[in-house]
Amino acid sequence: MHNEFFVALNGTNLVELTFDSKEKGEITRTCAPMDFGPSRRYSSPEVRYHFMDLDSSSGEHPLSITPEQVISIRTLEDKFSPAELVKWEPNWHYARDWGDYS
Prior knowledge:
Layout: H1 2-11, E1 13-20, E2 26-38, E3 47-53, E4 61-65, E5 70-79, H2 82-85
Antiparallel strand pairs: 1-2, 1-5, 2-3, 3-4
């Protein structure tokens, strides 16, 4: 699954992510993979997968989960545009070639 995440991230492919939400149990979402590394939001050195959740009932939002929470990651044919999702100054943990959004 780890490799699947990076292939999708580098190819700007959407993924179907199934994960254990801890609060709500198993959830499946269509997401854009964004980064892998410690969270800048939480004061924890624990590495996380960072996604943009695109089909949550509460609207599009960042989703940060630990590797232990991931049940499956499946790369989809559909692509995402970093220009449409990245609305901040990128400071990625994982290097990628996304042009101005790298």
